[in-house]
Amino acid sequence: FSCFSNHKVFILFAAPTCSYQNVLDHLHLTKANETFTMSRPVKDHTNKTVLYLEMIVYAILDVKETDQTFIAYVWIYMEWGNDYILWNKDDFCGISEVIVPTEVLWKPDITIEEMIEKDKAPQSPFLKIHSNGTIEFRNDQIVISACRMHVYKFPFDIQKCNITFKSYLYAEHELQIEIEKNSSVISMWSREIMATEFEWVFVDMTVTNSTVNHYGYNQTIVIYTIEMKRKSVLHVASFVLPILFFLCLDFFSLLLPHGGGEKIGFKTTVLLAVTVLQLILIEILPFTSSKIPLIVVYILGIFGLMLLSLLETIVVNYLIEMDSASQDDAQSVNE
Amino acid sequence: FSCFSNHKVFILFAAPTCSYQNVLDHLHLTKANETFTMSRPVKDHTNKTVLYLEMIVYAILDVKETDQTFIAYVWIYMEWGNDYILWNKDDFCGISEVIVPTEVLWKPDITIEEMIEKDKAPQSPFLKIHSNGTIEFRNDQIVISACRMHVYKFPFDIQKCNITFKSYLYAEHELQIEIEKNSSVISMWSREIMATEFEWVFVDMTVTNSTVNHYGYNQTIVIYTIEMKRKSVLHVASFVLPILFFLCLDFFSLLLPHGGGEKIGFKTTVLLAVTVLQLILIEILPFTSSKIPLIVVYILGIFGLMLLSLLETIVVNYLIEMDSASQDDAQSVNE
Amino acid sequence: FSCFSNHKVFILFAAPTCSYQNVLDHLHLTKANETFTMSRPVKDHTNKTVLYLEMIVYAILDVKETDQTFIAYVWIYMEWGNDYILWNKDDFCGISEVIVPTEVLWKPDITIEEMIEKDKAPQSPFLKIHSNGTIEFRNDQIVISACRMHVYKFPFDIQKCNITFKSYLYAEHELQIEIEKNSSVISMWSREIMATEFEWVFVDMTVTNSTVNHYGYNQTIVIYTIEMKRKSVLHVASFVLPILFFLCLDFFSLLLPHGGGEKIGFKTTVLLAVTVLQLILIEILPFTSSKIPLIVVYILGIFGLMLLSLLETIVVNYLIEMDSASQDDAQSVNE
Amino acid sequence: FSCFSNHKVFILFAAPTCSYQNVLDHLHLTKANETFTMSRPVKDHTNKTVLYLEMIVYAILDVKETDQTFIAYVWIYMEWGNDYILWNKDDFCGISEVIVPTEVLWKPDITIEEMIEKDKAPQSPFLKIHSNGTIEFRNDQIVISACRMHVYKFPFDIQKCNITFKSYLYAEHELQIEIEKNSSVISMWSREIMATEFEWVFVDMTVTNSTVNHYGYNQTIVIYTIEMKRKSVLHVASFVLPILFFLCLDFFSLLLPHGGGEKIGFKTTVLLAVTVLQLILIEILPFTSSKIPLIVVYILGIFGLMLLSLLETIVVNYLIEMDSASQDDAQSVNE
Amino acid sequence: FSCFSNHKVFILFAAPTCSYQNVLDHLHLTKANETFTMSRPVKDHTNKTVLYLEMIVYAILDVKETDQTFIAYVWIYMEWGNDYILWNKDDFCGISEVIVPTEVLWKPDITIEEMIEKDKAPQSPFLKIHSNGTIEFRNDQIVISACRMHVYKFPFDIQKCNITFKSYLYAEHELQIEIEKNSSVISMWSREIMATEFEWVFVDMTVTNSTVNHYGYNQTIVIYTIEMKRKSVLHVASFVLPILFFLCLDFFSLLLPHGGGEKIGFKTTVLLAVTVLQLILIEILPFTSSKIPLIVVYILGIFGLMLLSLLETIVVNYLIEMDSASQDDAQSVNE
């Protein structure tokens, strides 16, 4: 064993002392060294670890009203300190940062509160360590989160969905989460790189951090709120307009002659068409609201109007017939 | 090897003895130390491990009647004792708790009995150990569980779904599961934090623990029962009302003149509309009940009524025709 | 290193020798000891390992006719011997069983032959070892298996699905699978704990074990056969009855007057309704059978009957018209 | 440490030298011995590793025309040589084969070229090593593969799908893949054990191996071609027949009287029914072909025929009316 | 321990020194040697690692307009240098390349920017190392990527989707990505091997590499752009043609007699048919565009035309009736 390790040392010394491995050797950073992974990397336990967090929305992938879920593709940037990592870059030919595998270092247990489907994909395999002890982590993540939708004004609705970052176990005096950039900057950045927005127009994004009491101790949380407006033009073209057209048709049926059955047949057909459109709408809307959405009121209203007008036609027809029958009777009496 | 370890010891001694690592060193808690992972952490095997368990429902994600599954997003809190973990916090500058990776310690093999799709996502990466040997574990989990639904009163039904925690292998005298908070407290907490309730209104949550005999030895189980009421307003607006409207239309067809074919055509059209609505309902309801749900009885009843009234119209039409034909014959005879 | 291990030994000796760890130390059972995992745990290779297997069906989750798959949630119990595990429980204060992590011991490579979607979820994390060398393993598993369905008698069909346990590689003289309980006991147990049965009524479950020759050597297999009857009441209410109703309507159209077009219109409408119902049925039934199911024959028969009656009506109408036209001609000639 | 290993040796020597572990000890086959996993197990690098491969189709699970995927459940058998494994079975009481965990030995990097969804399930946990150095591996696998479908003759089509085995990196002079059994044998075996065939009848299976040049060096590939015929009886019953029925109805409408509107109404209704059937067909067929399938030509043809006949009826009606109008004019002039 | 390793050395020396293991021993390449995995493998940290990247599209699996995702099956080839790997092939009987497990060497952290569902499948298990320090990696991958679709010209649209390779953390001066082959070569290769193209015709593929500034430092990215044309023949056959047919029918209704209700009934039926076709189209098209696609304009236009012509018919009918009524009045007055 010894001859082997001597051999290695020899190779490294023969080379100029500017390899990344030299830094790692100086730090004793190996996969086996448990000091770096077993606990929060502070020399004095009263020291707080400050985590700088930043999130940019790269794509709004899906917003499912029926499932009340919001699916976004986000870029996450995290930065925190590690007391055991420190070197003088001048001792190592100016190496100021080394990129090392993720599993050799402690990572904060940050989770997204609303996330209802955990990301099973492997995370970024590397971390960047800086000579002053700062650790940098970047990751791309699909966030499938629960979001309470308000479909009252559908299809002209604006939705707000939260993405809340928090630690599972660390209290505020151990791990404090800070925001790096303010709301307007991340809004602007997200707007610039947004690749796909699905059915939505990205309106705005705000970020706040606050302290909450979670079962016995305070924790800091960071809440990103994403505001989106629905693109309603195709919904109008496919639901609102056709229904208006059919209402229009129904009104024009006034011009049809009263007596015959064709008016009733025409009105029944139009009523059936509206029923079909109504059923399609109900497939799109969630059954989750306790308040009936405006668009359902709109369709049910038109449906009701047509129904009443159909009933009225039937009654009028009946009365006309009665009348003519009595006239016939009168005539026959007269005769 | 020796120079390296000396070096490390030197660094640690130079720093004040308040690092978390000092506690771990004192406990000999390393990834390689199998005492902590190989068996239940009691010094005397007759000692019982008591597990305090708590669950809060964070979101009701889906209730699929057709699949008889209930999907919830829950927060689980567990706490148990470990005889091998004990330190005097005064010896370590007041450190009373350390957060360590999950894989270095034994964890109870708690499973959810009804869970039909195992959670493939990684669990919380850390555990909190306390100076008195208490271990604290927190996790967020999606529970996809089997739940026998009763759709008899659909859409005015109330469902009760169970989430049962038990150990795979430990008997009651080895692992005993206790409830930390009573039913009313967890009900209240769940109601407060409930983020999304899907199509349901969370009514209540109860928790009981009992002892069952599982193939040879007693085990403690903890049963959480979640009671939910369906939000029925949109179902009424989309199914119950339109069918009533069509029944109404069918009644008004009495006012149509008997003789012509238009009455029969009108009634047939209305019957078709009800058939279409009935088919949509059957897509929503599961074929799992041996009792026909009330709403199906309701629709089949209305369907039957309309059918009978249609048949009656046809027969009456026929009789009138017969009658007039015989009158015509009589007339022609008279003539 | 030495001071550390002395320290540990000291702690353990100070405690009474009743810790589980003492047993493991006695057996030299550690994660690094490859004797326990590298090969079948018999001291003499001519010894057979006998595996006792038991399966209970906890839930029938889905039976997909169109995919020919059967999804069940089962509880599996396995028990086998390990020659390297043996201790006298009196030497260890009466400890007769220890629960250890699964990965430290050899496990038989039992697989389910019909399983078409492998279970990606982690298995039970622990095994129970007994002082006489018996190993006990319990697991809950979702079994997604291929099952040849016979839909000829749909919706009054009874299906039989097999779950076959076998070893990948071990021959019969190495690993023999035995059944612990007989068919009637596991049927009874399954019936008792069955949580959800989906669209089916659990009828019976039988178990047999046999020997098959698999590419060069004999292997024992254990076949569990699950027999289920479909709950047909809702299918009757939604397909069979409405079609009968429409057939009924079609018969009553005999009473409509012959001459006018309304009879043909009425019959065409009823024919369309049956076509729609037929299409829905075809969505439910698989295209997998080479024999046409009875229900399709039933619907096609009724469809054909209606079609013929419609054609007959058209022909009769035509003949009546011809007749009256010739009479008119005759009349006009007479005149 | 030393006392422990002495102890172990003692136990093993006390037992007869017929344990599998003795063979492994002789081979120095341990998890830590990297000779067995780091590189292709040949003593002289110019030696070729010959891999015997065999595949049997156990079930055709799905053939999705719209996705152009073919899903089968196959049994794979592989056998190759390892120069580092060799023992005289007479030295070990006749032990001629040992079953060891998969991860302790090198395995060829065989992949299926068409596979579009990688199998995430764990593979068979064991390999069988023979005393002459042969390694045997068996696995069950779901193959989800891309397959170019030809739907031109739907529903009377025959599809051929390939499953191509190749190595990621090894050239032909390093790893050569050989077929164990010829096409007729595997065809026969597959036909015997086929558990489910979905919508298809398994026709034949052929196997060929060839050499291809892949970016710089030759590789051997083995191509299994599976030929299947669609079961078309239900497709005929549900699409082809009803459309013929409706065409039939349309022809019979010739017998309806010309003048009135009822003929046009009847023909329009039949045309609508065919439109609905056409739309259902388009849901089943993929949009992937650049040639229009025969069945679409068939339906479009019938649709066109009906349309023309409807237009002709309208024109004839118009001409008759014109004629009678001019006759009326002539009459009124005459009068 | 020492006797064992002596033993091994003995075996290896007895064999000719042409085993792959000899090369690995020379390089000290073992799983435990962290020099090869902990950091970028350059001896001088100012050396740039150049990564040659190549991608060929093997299959276009799916293009989902409604989800705005593009799913392709690609072959990726990567090649980079490792300063720690170097041997003289003449010293090792001419061995110029060794294939070793992937996990023993550093791999660049290349990710695909648009990828919205991470590949959970295991990657190719081996890397090829060359005697000059070049590392070769090949992999097959499913890429599920976000792609902004332009459906304005549907179904005659051409889509361009990007696949962008970049490093998570490495700056341009550390890791530079180069393209091996130019656009025309990879286009040609992709066209040759394309197994399935789904609904699309592969048109062209271009590749460019550029430098972007990502949060503080420059990174090289490589963008592959895939251009595809939709196969529109079936869309034309199923949507565009039938709608034209129905428009045609509507025009011919001019020939129907004005007075009766049959003209209105006919026109209403045709209008309903177009409504149904319109709804099906809306299911296919995404609601994601802010501009209404041409095909929707086409259908809405035809729908509007028919509606206007229907209204006009109703009005004309009304006027004719009014006129005849006034004539009747005039007549009766005259009488």
UniProtKB/TrEMBL annotation, chains A, B, C, D, E:
Domain Neurotransmitter-gated ion-channel transmembrane: 240-326
GO cellular component, one term: postsynaptic membrane
Signal peptide region: none
Lipid bilayer topology: Multi-pass membrane protein
Membrane-spanning residues: 233-256, 268-288, 295-320
Subcellular location: Postsynaptic cell membrane
Database matches in InterPro entries: Neur_chan_lig-bd (IPR006202), Neur_chan_lig-bd_sf (IPR036734), Neur_channel (IPR006201), Neuro-gated_channel_TM_sf (IPR036719), Neuro_actylchol_rec (IPR038050), Neurotrans-gated_channel_TM (IPR006029), Neurotransmitter_ion_chnl_CS (IPR018000)
Primary localisation category: membrane
Pfam families: Neur_chan_LBD (PF02931), Neur_chan_memb (PF02932)
Key words of the record: Cell membrane, Disulfide bond, Glycoprotein, Ion channel, Ion transport, Ligand-gated ion channel, Membrane, Postsynaptic cell membrane, Receptor, Signal, Synapse, Transmembrane, Transmembrane helix, Transport
Domain Neurotransmitter-gated ion-channel ligand-binding per the UniProt entry, residue ranges: 38-231
GO molecular function: extracellular ligand-gated monoatomic ion channel activity; transmembrane signaling receptor activity
Reactions that this protein is recorded to catalyse: Ca(2+)(in) = Ca(2+)(out); K(+)(in) = K(+)(out); Na(+)(in) = Na(+)(out)
Biological role: Forms serotonin (5-hydroxytryptamine/5-HT3)-activated cation-selective channel complexes, which when activated cause fast, depolarizing responses in neurons.
Name recorded for this polypeptide: 5-hydroxytryptamine receptor 3A-like
Taxon lineage: Eukaryota, Metazoa, Chordata, Craniata, Vertebrata
